[in-house]
Amino acid sequence: MKRYAQDTSVPVGRSRGEIDALLRRWGAKGVQWTDDFDEGKVALRFAWTHEGSQYMARFNINLPSEDELRKQAIDGRSTNYGQGGRVSEAKLEKLRRARGQAEHRLLLFWLKAAFNAVEAGIISAEALFLPFLEGRDGKTVAEVAVPKLSELLSYNAGRLLPQHGGK
What we know:
There is one protein chain. By secondary structure, this protein is of the alpha+beta class. It has 2 domains: 87 residues, 2-Layer Sandwich (Double Stranded RNA Binding Domain); 32 residues, no CATH class. The chain contains 7 helices and 3 strands; from the N terminus they run αβββαααααα. Strands 1-2-3 form a 3-stranded antiparallel β-sheet, covered by helices on one side. α1 runs parallel beside α4 and α2 packs across α3. The chain is globular and about 60 Å long.
């Protein structure tokens, strides 16, 4: 199945600029992009004030590794003694140049849809962004909750909060 925005030719910088502008219009107080070239990861953080409280949200983007790009660059027309095709250097270079374009485009479209859902009253901004909100320790709610999800869901919702005896 083909991924949405897989074939986009929109440069990463343009998508980031559009994300920055969207967040600014929505009321973000600051935006930070962090690139980890060795690990192939990108983080978007933005500060947001809502009803007097300051929040920090973080989205992580995992980019395709060099190995993944090499697999995608295999030329299916040439065979190597029945072991599959060889890596097309031209295709590999094209994939390297496009690395991150689809992922940044997807994040932009997701954020646009999310803000539209908030504006339409389908979901509150707090509920929508809850998994991405960072605590003082730098971990997002999702990073803390997902490993304990099964345990957390075994309680009723009120027991999730410490003052109600949750863990």
